[in-house]
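Q: Structure tokens for this one, please.
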Amino acid sequence: MANEWFETVGEAHRRARKRLPRSVYLALVAGAEQGLTLRDNMRAFGEIGLAPHVAELEMERDTETSFMDQPLSMPVMISPTGVQAVHPDGEVAVARAAANRGVAIGLSGFGSKPIEEVVEANPQTFFQIYWTGSKDDILHRVERAKRAGAVGLIVTLDWSFSIGREWGSPEIPNEMNLKTMVKYAPEVLLGGKFRYLMNYARTLRPPELTVPNMATPGNPAPKFFEAYGEWMETDLPTWDDIRWLREEWGGPFMVKGIVRVDDALRAVDAGATAISVSNHGGNNLDGTPASIRALPAIVDAVGDDVEIAMDGGIRRGSDVVKAVAMGARTTMIGRAYLWGLAAAGQAGVENVLDLLRGGIDSGLMALRKSSVHQLNRSDLVIPPNFARELGGESGHAYVDGHALHESEN
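A: Here is the predicted structure, written as tokens:
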């Protein structure tokens, strides 16, 4: 419907806030502790300028690229996110939207829909896992993803189990039983969230809080916090463990959560075919720099050896242009598509992807580029002291493509 269309991701965010119960909305927007990293992810893009031309602009522009052996209509992918209680169709609706717009999707191991259903909706599905449970459990999930037809594996390593939320993150229930529904009913009914209620009423089922892709032989799909608890109790992986998982998978393999140069080098050494420069959307260790600040040093260190994605703070097509010009092969979006899903279901996700594509196209035109592959740092206005080199050999600040001596910092 025409009145469902929104013209910015910010408008999708506004509609999501209006339509979602307060607890669900706050669960989407909250970041770790003070939200410093969450805010820096977005603020950092605003510090980067663009250097457009005014004549001899390209009338034909190509936004297509590829990543981990998958063709993409633009340098955007769907980032894996946990249980999606914003719409009953969840990851399946997102997968269909992504397929219709020619982009790939990452399905979280903590997602609410089985991988088989998501792959059926979008054959360009990457399966994301956390290092949780025994190696046999992990191998079972990997083999299930292979059988389902997942085109690549994403292992997410950036998590410090931070539970502190100093600005309004709600309590999340462990299961949607009668007691829970009675508890949250006033929030839905008195808050006027009737559209959200009707979306689920049509399915005759409450929001899903189990994680079907975490099931193991002889054990049913656990509830979200049961799976989360197992994750917290599992010994953290070593780089040898990551190398083992890479060999067991055997196909395209991304390590997600890299912000340090030394970790990027280790991921390459472990056999990763791709890495994502990411701080978990500001939900990991608060105070970590924005992903876009960490990107240049990592690109310069390993960009010739591995494909690089970046996620964190993408809200418009110009953000994608900046990330690609800084050296990312593609970007990954999280909250942006969830707001679209909350605003209008599958059509809302397609709307968000259309907005990003339009912004990328406009950026290419103004920068006098005929392809996203022509973007580079000369198209950007990067302020002094913008970028950060974490874990590099010099240990110095990273500014405008050059490591500075201590006396210059």
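A few notes: DSSP finds 14 helices and 14 strands in the chain. The two ends are 54 Å apart (CA to CA).
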